[in-house]
Amino acid sequence: MLKNAASLPAAALIILLMLTACSTAPSRKDEPLPAPTPAASPAPTVVPVPVPDTAAQALQAVSFSDLPGWQDDDLLQAWPAWLASCTALMKRPGWQEPCQAASLVNGTDEKAVRAYFETRFVPHKVSNPDGSVTGMVTGYYEPLLRGARKRGGVFQTALYRVPEDLLTIDLAALYPELKNLRLRGRIVGNKVVPYFSRADMVQQNGLAGKELLWVDNAVDAFFLQVQGSGRVYLNDTRETVRVAYADQNGHPYKSIGRYLVSRGEMTLDQASAQSIMAWAAANPGREQALLNANPSFVFFREEKLGDPAIGPKGALGVPLTPQRSIAVDPQFIPLGSPVFLASTLPNTDVPLRRLMMAQDTGGAIRNPVRADYFWGFGSDAGDLAGRMKQAGMLWVMIPRATPEQPASVRSMP
Question: Which of the listed residues 267, 282, 303 is the one where a domain comes to its end?
Answer without folding.
Answer: 303
